[in-house]
Design goal:
Blueprint: H1 8-15, H2 24-28, H3 46-61, H4 65-77, H5 82-91, H6 94-100, H7 107-115, E1 119-121, E2 124-125, E3 138-141, H8 149-155, E4 166-169, E5 174-177, H9 192-200
Helix pairs in contact: 3-9, 4-5, 5-9, 6-7
Length: 201
């Protein structure tokens, strides 16, 4: 299963955002990496800005180029705003839903929970992080994994009301994916229209 395993703080510093979760390095060095990172004044081209936006989305959701391209092509075939649909498809990935439910502190940790068969969808174990969760399906922690320390620590103090498209159920330690999220409800700082323009070139 392909995934990005390189230096995360370096990527976060490039975009100036904690796209992988809380980052101690970024909080101390909020400028681009490299010897001259703090002195760069180079103007980025329009194409460069669009490319950077796509890269940010890929790193944020933990998707590699081919998967991302496939998701974009799928979004382009649906009726509606392509950029918004692309984000909805990314949000409906199983690893992202596990992250949004507060069962893991980061998407990478959520991906690991899924891969290690700790997550069930409608009562059935699913170990594919890219699995697309459908409205009405219930994503929860497998019974024997409910006492895992990483899950307990992540859930402590987590606000389950901040994502209106997911309904938390304490009894199953999981929640129902109610519907695809509206763009206004997706907190990620991604300019999806720039991604659409990039792929349209």
């Amino acid at each position: 299963m392909a995934r990005y395993i390189g230096p995360k703080s370096r990527i976060a510093r490039r975009f100036g955002e904690a796209i992988f979760g809380p980052d101690k390095v970024l909080s101390k060095k909020n400028y681009a990496p490299g010897q001259h990172g703090n002195n760069r004044r180079k103007k980025t081209s329009e194409y460069g800005l669009m490319l950077a936006e796509k890269q940010k989305a890929k790193y944020t959701y933990g998707v590699l180029e081919r998967q991302f391209r496939n998701l974009f092509e799928k979004a382009a075939t649906k009726s509606g705003v392509t950029g918004e649909i692309l984000l909805q498809l990314l949000e409906s990935r199983l690893d992202n839903v596990v992250f949004r439910l507060g069962l893991a502190p980061t998407r990478a940790a959520a991906r690991q929970l899924v891969s290690h068969k700790h997550i069930v969808v409608d009562g059935q174990v699913v170990n594919i992080p890219s699995y697309s969760v459908k409205p009405g399906q219930i994503v929860a922690v497998r019974e024997k994994a409910k006492s895992l320390e990483v899950i307990e620590a992540s859930l402590a103090g987590f606000n389950h009301s901040k994502y209106p498209w997911i309904e938390w159920d304490e009894n199953v330690k999981g929640g129902k994916f109610l519907h695809m999220p509206e763009r206004a409800d997706i907190p990620e700082n991604i300019k999806e229209q720039m991604i659409v323009e990039l792929y349209s070139k």
